[in-house]
Amino acid sequence: MRVAEQARPARATAPDMSSDSRNGTLDPQDGVRVAYVMSRFPKLTETFVLYEMLALAELGLKVEVFPLLRERETAVHAEARALVERAHYTPFLSLAILAAQLHFLVQRPRAYLSTLFQVIARTLPSPNFLAGALVFFPKCVLIAREMQRRGVQHVHAHFANHPALAALIVHRLTGIPFSFTAHGSDLHVDQTALGWKLAGSAFAVSVSEYNREFVRERVGAPAADKLMVIHCGVDLAQIEQATPAESATFEILCVAALRGVKGHRHLIDACARLHAAGVPFRCHLVGGGPLERELRTHIERAGLGGQVLMHGPLPREAVLERMRAAHVLVQPSIIDSAGRREGIPVTLMEAMATGLAVVASRLSGIPELIEDGRSGLLVEPGDARALADALARLRAEPELRAGLGREARARVGAEFDLRAGAGRLAGAIRSAAAKSALRS
Length: 440
Fold this sequence. Notes:
single chain, 440 residues, alpha/beta, Rossmann fold, 2 domains, 12 strands, disordered N terminus
């Protein structure tokens, strides 16, 4: 496998995302100016946000980027660099922020004060949401003013927690319609104010049917009906199918942030079982995070220092190189003690797009991506024995690995295509912007 060479430059240079906005009634094909709000940018683990923005730009939307915080990581995807240069970063306190508060207090005092009151009242049950609301509110007011100045016609937020609240604040102050995408832990851990956000949105997106049913059970059918399911996806044209790995040692790959929800401890325990059974293997952990020291200790105590290797965070091209050299990718996700869980990991989609066999947990929306025994293998979350058995089976049956990989690539192409999902999202954004223009 190699990344398609002719297609890569379009991604690396990034489409034009800053053309002049239009006023008045919108033609459905007009380049609607949409502002993206996310917690942090650029975030190495959130490629789905990056590539969605690029795909929308290719479809003719004018994308502006408004992160709540600037992320400073040692590795940055090449495609993100041009967007970082144009992103609208704002401090927590500045003269511009004070001026924005005064602007809305003078021009729209009722909207400003009622929004502040509602934000506090709605987030009061959750200390985390309340603290975030109080910290980010002044910044969101400045963002609202900047979006007005730039002619933004729609706001889309990624994640149902702080970014969705920021988009709602912008909407209440300016009238610009908004939407948001709910993924995993942002939705599952705390649903405070979720119904309010959904009610105020033009529409909302769930990355899985599982999430929509989760919302239905906890917030009610009317709120869930506001959600349209658009799976995150990958661009199959950008990823060619891999040739089988040549290493005689069974090469296991896990690409995930080093956080409890990712289940690395159970993969290490599964590796200990493989080692005890005399299976020759190497397990490569790609990613960084707060559990790095703890996981290194766990590896050493299991006597796996030479077999479980930690590579830290890597950009996408380096991850694809790792996939080229692997026999299997593992995503051993769990529900952690706080209730955090995956949505549908895009890493699984990328691995499946290469034709790599995958093993993952039967959890959340993952079974919507992987058909057990057909396009991958599923095990129960936290079951190290089952995980070890699945890996041993794939090592012993190369024909099974190859068959799963072929079906995996076909599955991603049919149901998890980035461009198809972006097309649906672009249509919903254009529709919401057009309706708003007609009302104004």
